[in-house]
Amino acid sequence: MSLTTWLLEKASPSQTPFHAYRKRIRWTPKSQQRVNRWFASRRQVFFVLSTGRTGSRWLAGLLNTCQNASVFHEPIRWEQWAHREAIEQPESAESYIQQFRLKEIYLRVAGRPDERPVYGEVNGCLRRHAAAIASNLPQAVLLHVVRDGRDFVRSVCTRGTFAGAHPVYTGLRPPLDSEWPKDWSALSEFERACWMWANENSHLAAHVPTSLRFEDLVGSYEAFADGVLAPLQLDVPRAAWDAARTRPDNASTGVQAPHWTEWTASQSDTFWSICGEQMKRYGYQGAKEESLANAN
Questions:
Q1: pTM
Q2: What is the mean pLDDT of residues 273-278?
Q3: Domains of the chain, CATH where assigned
Protein backbone atom coordinates (compact mmCIF):
# COMPACT_ATOMS: atom_id res chain seq x y z
CA MET A 1 0.00 0.00 0.00
CA SER A 2 1.38 3.41 -0.95
CA LEU A 3 1.74 6.20 1.61
CA THR A 4 -0.90 8.25 -0.21
CA THR A 5 -3.40 5.38 -0.13
CA TRP A 6 -2.70 4.78 3.55
CA LEU A 7 -3.25 8.46 4.33
CA LEU A 8 -6.49 8.53 2.39
CA GLU A 9 -7.80 5.47 4.20
CA LYS A 10 -6.67 6.42 7.72
CA ALA A 11 -6.90 10.20 7.78
CA SER A 12 -10.00 12.31 8.17
CA PRO A 13 -11.03 14.17 4.98
CA SER A 14 -9.48 17.42 6.19
CA GLN A 15 -6.07 15.68 6.44
CA THR A 16 -5.88 14.09 2.98
CA PRO A 17 -3.47 15.30 0.26
CA PHE A 18 -6.46 16.52 -1.78
CA HIS A 19 -7.73 18.71 1.03
CA ALA A 20 -4.22 19.99 1.77
CA TYR A 21 -3.83 20.98 -1.90
CA ARG A 22 -7.22 22.65 -1.87
CA LYS A 23 -6.31 24.67 1.20
CA ARG A 24 -2.96 25.70 -0.31
CA ILE A 25 -4.58 26.95 -3.51
CA ARG A 26 -7.23 28.91 -1.65
CA TRP A 27 -4.56 30.64 0.43
CA THR A 28 -2.38 31.50 -2.59
CA PRO A 29 -2.79 35.24 -3.28
CA LYS A 30 -4.28 35.88 -6.71
CA SER A 31 -6.91 38.45 -7.62
CA GLN A 32 -10.23 37.18 -8.93
CA GLN A 33 -10.06 39.84 -11.65
CA ARG A 34 -6.82 38.39 -13.00
CA VAL A 35 -8.28 34.89 -12.99
CA ASN A 36 -11.40 36.12 -14.78
CA ARG A 37 -9.33 37.95 -17.41
CA TRP A 38 -7.34 34.81 -18.12
CA PHE A 39 -10.47 32.75 -18.72
CA ALA A 40 -11.90 35.52 -20.91
CA SER A 41 -8.73 35.40 -23.03
CA ARG A 42 -9.17 31.69 -23.82
CA ARG A 43 -10.37 30.91 -27.31
CA GLN A 44 -12.37 28.06 -25.82
CA VAL A 45 -13.02 26.49 -22.41
CA PHE A 46 -14.80 23.17 -22.11
CA PHE A 47 -15.65 20.39 -19.68
CA VAL A 48 -16.71 16.90 -20.75
CA LEU A 49 -18.53 15.37 -17.78
CA SER A 50 -19.67 11.83 -17.07
CA THR A 51 -20.11 9.17 -14.41
CA GLY A 52 -16.60 7.92 -15.09
CA ARG A 53 -15.87 4.53 -16.72
CA THR A 54 -16.86 6.20 -20.02
CA GLY A 55 -13.55 6.29 -21.87
CA SER A 56 -12.71 9.66 -20.31
CA ARG A 57 -8.95 9.13 -20.20
CA TRP A 58 -9.00 7.92 -23.79
CA LEU A 59 -11.00 10.96 -24.90
CA ALA A 60 -8.80 13.43 -23.04
CA GLY A 61 -5.67 11.93 -24.55
CA LEU A 62 -7.11 12.09 -28.04
CA LEU A 63 -8.27 15.70 -27.72
CA ASN A 64 -4.95 16.72 -26.20
CA THR A 65 -3.26 15.84 -29.50
CA CYS A 66 -4.79 19.04 -30.91
CA GLN A 67 -1.96 21.56 -31.13
CA ASN A 68 -4.04 24.49 -29.88
CA ALA A 69 -5.61 22.73 -26.87
CA SER A 70 -4.52 21.69 -23.39
CA VAL A 71 -6.91 18.92 -22.38
CA PHE A 72 -6.65 17.25 -18.99
CA HIS A 73 -8.12 14.07 -17.61
CA GLU A 74 -9.12 14.59 -13.97
CA PRO A 75 -6.08 16.80 -13.28
CA ILE A 76 -6.46 16.89 -9.48
CA ARG A 77 -5.62 13.66 -7.68
CA TRP A 78 -8.44 12.28 -5.56
CA GLU A 79 -10.92 14.92 -6.68
CA GLN A 80 -13.53 12.25 -5.98
CA TRP A 81 -13.65 13.93 -2.56
CA ALA A 82 -15.26 16.96 -4.22
CA HIS A 83 -17.77 14.69 -5.94
CA ARG A 84 -18.69 13.04 -2.66
CA GLU A 85 -19.03 16.41 -0.96
CA ALA A 86 -21.34 17.67 -3.71
CA ILE A 87 -23.56 14.58 -3.40
CA GLU A 88 -23.90 14.90 0.36
CA GLN A 89 -23.93 18.71 0.43
CA PRO A 90 -25.18 19.99 -2.95
CA GLU A 91 -24.74 23.62 -1.91
CA SER A 92 -20.95 23.06 -1.71
CA ALA A 93 -20.61 22.79 -5.51
CA GLU A 94 -20.90 26.54 -6.09
CA SER A 95 -18.17 27.54 -3.63
CA TYR A 96 -15.92 24.72 -4.82
CA ILE A 97 -15.89 26.09 -8.37
CA GLN A 98 -15.99 29.78 -7.49
CA GLN A 99 -13.50 29.89 -4.63
CA PHE A 100 -11.14 27.05 -5.52
CA ARG A 101 -11.37 25.45 -8.93
CA LEU A 102 -11.13 28.53 -11.16
CA LYS A 103 -8.06 29.77 -9.31
CA GLU A 104 -6.59 26.26 -9.34
CA ILE A 105 -6.85 26.06 -13.13
CA TYR A 106 -5.25 29.48 -13.51
CA LEU A 107 -2.34 28.68 -11.18
CA ARG A 108 -1.76 25.30 -12.81
CA VAL A 109 -1.86 26.43 -16.44
CA ALA A 110 -1.38 30.18 -16.91
CA GLY A 111 2.09 31.26 -17.98
CA ARG A 112 3.40 27.78 -18.69
CA PRO A 113 5.65 27.46 -21.75
CA ASP A 114 3.16 25.02 -23.27
CA GLU A 115 0.08 27.14 -22.51
CA ARG A 116 -2.47 26.91 -25.33
CA PRO A 117 -5.51 29.04 -26.25
CA VAL A 118 -8.01 26.23 -25.56
CA TYR A 119 -8.42 24.76 -22.07
CA GLY A 120 -10.44 21.61 -21.52
CA GLU A 121 -11.07 18.82 -19.06
CA VAL A 122 -12.63 15.40 -19.39
CA ASN A 123 -13.59 14.89 -15.79
CA GLY A 124 -16.06 12.58 -14.07
CA CYS A 125 -15.28 14.07 -10.66
CA LEU A 126 -17.02 17.33 -11.58
CA ARG A 127 -20.29 15.79 -12.66
CA ARG A 128 -22.11 17.31 -9.68
CA HIS A 129 -20.61 20.72 -10.46
CA ALA A 130 -22.12 21.26 -13.92
CA ALA A 131 -24.51 24.00 -12.80
CA ALA A 132 -21.76 25.76 -10.84
CA ILE A 133 -19.41 25.66 -13.83
CA ALA A 134 -22.12 27.10 -16.07
CA SER A 135 -22.89 29.95 -13.66
CA ASN A 136 -19.24 30.88 -13.07
CA LEU A 137 -17.99 30.24 -16.61
CA PRO A 138 -20.97 30.98 -18.86
CA GLN A 139 -18.71 30.85 -21.92
CA ALA A 140 -17.65 27.25 -21.21
CA VAL A 141 -18.97 24.42 -23.37
CA LEU A 142 -20.31 21.48 -21.37
CA LEU A 143 -20.80 18.00 -22.81
CA HIS A 144 -22.20 14.91 -21.10
CA VAL A 145 -20.96 11.45 -22.13
CA VAL A 146 -23.06 8.46 -21.11
CA ARG A 147 -22.24 4.76 -21.40
CA ASP A 148 -24.55 1.73 -21.40
CA GLY A 149 -25.43 1.32 -17.73
CA ARG A 150 -24.83 -2.42 -17.80
CA ASP A 151 -21.19 -1.90 -18.77
CA PHE A 152 -20.79 0.86 -16.16
CA VAL A 153 -22.16 -1.36 -13.38
CA ARG A 154 -19.85 -4.20 -14.35
CA SER A 155 -16.80 -1.92 -14.47
CA VAL A 156 -17.57 -0.28 -11.11
CA CYS A 157 -18.23 -3.64 -9.45
CA THR A 158 -14.94 -4.97 -10.86
CA ARG A 159 -13.14 -2.07 -9.20
CA GLY A 160 -15.04 -2.37 -5.94
CA THR A 161 -15.79 1.34 -5.81
CA PHE A 162 -18.91 0.90 -3.68
CA ALA A 163 -17.97 -2.34 -1.94
CA GLY A 164 -17.12 -0.59 1.31
CA ALA A 165 -13.33 -0.26 1.16
CA HIS A 166 -12.82 2.68 -1.21
CA PRO A 167 -10.63 5.46 0.27
CA VAL A 168 -13.15 8.14 -0.72
CA TYR A 169 -16.58 6.56 -1.08
CA THR A 170 -16.56 4.43 2.07
CA GLY A 171 -19.16 5.95 4.37
CA LEU A 172 -20.88 7.84 1.54
CA ARG A 173 -24.43 8.85 2.48
CA PRO A 174 -26.26 10.20 -0.57
CA PRO A 175 -29.77 11.49 0.08
CA LEU A 176 -31.98 8.87 -1.56
CA ASP A 177 -35.44 9.72 -2.87
CA SER A 178 -38.31 9.08 -0.50
CA GLU A 179 -39.61 6.16 -2.57
CA TRP A 180 -36.48 4.10 -1.87
CA PRO A 181 -37.37 1.35 0.62
CA LYS A 182 -33.96 1.39 2.35
CA ASP A 183 -31.05 3.75 2.88
CA TRP A 184 -27.65 3.66 1.17
CA SER A 185 -25.94 1.61 3.88
CA ALA A 186 -28.46 -1.19 3.34
CA LEU A 187 -27.96 -1.37 -0.43
CA SER A 188 -25.82 -4.07 -2.00
CA GLU A 189 -22.75 -3.12 -4.03
CA PHE A 190 -24.71 -3.93 -7.19
CA GLU A 191 -27.63 -1.71 -6.16
CA ARG A 192 -25.28 1.14 -5.29
CA ALA A 193 -23.63 0.97 -8.72
CA CYS A 194 -27.04 0.97 -10.40
CA TRP A 195 -28.21 3.93 -8.31
CA MET A 196 -25.05 5.90 -9.08
CA TRP A 197 -25.39 5.39 -12.84
CA ALA A 198 -29.08 6.31 -12.95
CA ASN A 199 -28.94 9.21 -10.52
CA GLU A 200 -25.77 10.83 -11.81
CA ASN A 201 -26.84 10.66 -15.46
CA SER A 202 -30.23 12.10 -14.53
CA HIS A 203 -28.48 14.95 -12.73
CA LEU A 204 -26.17 15.62 -15.68
CA ALA A 205 -29.04 15.60 -18.16
CA ALA A 206 -30.77 18.27 -16.08
CA HIS A 207 -27.78 20.63 -16.25
CA VAL A 208 -25.91 19.84 -19.48
CA PRO A 209 -27.77 20.47 -22.75
CA THR A 210 -25.88 17.93 -24.87
CA SER A 211 -25.61 14.21 -24.07
CA LEU A 212 -23.47 11.87 -26.18
CA ARG A 213 -23.26 8.08 -26.07
CA PHE A 214 -19.78 6.67 -25.58
CA GLU A 215 -20.59 3.78 -27.91
CA ASP A 216 -21.36 6.24 -30.73
CA LEU A 217 -18.15 8.22 -30.16
CA VAL A 218 -15.97 5.13 -30.58
CA GLY A 219 -18.15 3.55 -33.26
CA SER A 220 -18.47 6.39 -35.77
CA TYR A 221 -16.05 9.16 -36.69
CA GLU A 222 -18.98 11.23 -37.93
CA ALA A 223 -20.67 10.97 -34.51
CA PHE A 224 -17.38 11.90 -32.83
CA ALA A 225 -16.80 14.84 -35.16
CA ASP A 226 -20.35 16.18 -34.92
CA GLY A 227 -20.80 15.56 -31.20
CA VAL A 228 -17.38 16.50 -29.85
CA LEU A 229 -15.12 18.23 -32.36
CA ALA A 230 -17.68 20.66 -33.78
CA PRO A 231 -18.90 22.19 -30.49
CA LEU A 232 -15.35 22.28 -29.08
CA GLN A 233 -13.93 23.76 -32.31
CA LEU A 234 -11.15 21.17 -32.43
CA ASP A 235 -9.70 19.07 -35.22
CA VAL A 236 -8.75 15.41 -34.86
CA PRO A 237 -8.09 13.61 -38.16
CA ARG A 238 -10.05 10.45 -38.87
CA ALA A 239 -6.82 8.42 -38.91
CA ALA A 240 -5.91 9.59 -35.39
CA TRP A 241 -9.39 8.78 -34.09
CA ASP A 242 -9.35 5.37 -35.77
CA ALA A 243 -5.96 4.48 -34.28
CA ALA A 244 -6.94 5.67 -30.79
CA ARG A 245 -10.27 3.88 -30.57
CA THR A 246 -8.60 0.49 -30.84
CA ARG A 247 -6.36 1.21 -27.82
CA PRO A 248 -8.37 1.05 -24.57
CA ASP A 249 -7.04 3.36 -21.85
CA ASN A 250 -7.58 2.78 -18.12
CA ALA A 251 -9.49 -0.45 -18.69
CA SER A 252 -10.43 -2.45 -15.60
CA THR A 253 -7.93 -5.22 -14.85
CA GLY A 254 -7.81 -8.24 -12.58
CA VAL A 255 -10.77 -10.46 -11.79
CA GLN A 256 -13.77 -9.13 -13.68
CA ALA A 257 -17.30 -8.87 -12.33
CA PRO A 258 -19.79 -10.97 -14.32
CA HIS A 259 -20.80 -9.65 -17.72
CA TRP A 260 -24.45 -8.63 -17.85
CA THR A 261 -25.23 -11.73 -19.93
CA GLU A 262 -24.24 -13.71 -16.82
CA TRP A 263 -26.38 -11.76 -14.37
CA THR A 264 -29.03 -13.58 -12.41
CA ALA A 265 -32.69 -12.82 -13.08
CA SER A 266 -32.75 -10.94 -9.77
CA GLN A 267 -29.80 -8.75 -10.81
CA SER A 268 -31.38 -7.98 -14.18
CA ASP A 269 -34.67 -7.07 -12.50
CA THR A 270 -32.80 -4.84 -10.03
CA PHE A 271 -30.86 -3.10 -12.78
CA TRP A 272 -33.91 -2.36 -14.88
CA SER A 273 -36.03 -1.22 -11.96
CA ILE A 274 -33.35 1.34 -11.04
CA CYS A 275 -31.85 2.23 -14.42
CA GLY A 276 -34.65 1.52 -16.88
CA GLU A 277 -35.90 5.09 -17.23
CA GLN A 278 -32.43 6.47 -17.94
CA MET A 279 -31.53 3.61 -20.29
CA LYS A 280 -34.61 4.48 -22.34
CA ARG A 281 -33.76 8.20 -22.24
CA TYR A 282 -30.39 7.59 -23.88
CA GLY A 283 -31.73 5.31 -26.56
CA TYR A 284 -30.53 1.89 -25.47
CA GLN A 285 -33.61 0.40 -27.12
CA GLY A 286 -34.02 -3.34 -26.93
CA ALA A 287 -31.45 -3.62 -24.18
CA LYS A 288 -33.98 -4.65 -21.52
CA GLU A 289 -35.41 -7.54 -23.53
CA GLU A 290 -31.88 -8.62 -24.43
CA SER A 291 -30.78 -8.56 -20.79
CA LEU A 292 -33.78 -10.44 -19.45
CA ALA A 293 -33.49 -13.05 -22.19
CA ASN A 294 -29.89 -13.73 -21.14
CA ALA A 295 -30.55 -13.69 -17.37
CA ASN A 296 -29.70 -16.88 -15.51
A1: 0.91
A2: 95
A3: 3-156+196-248 (3.40.50)
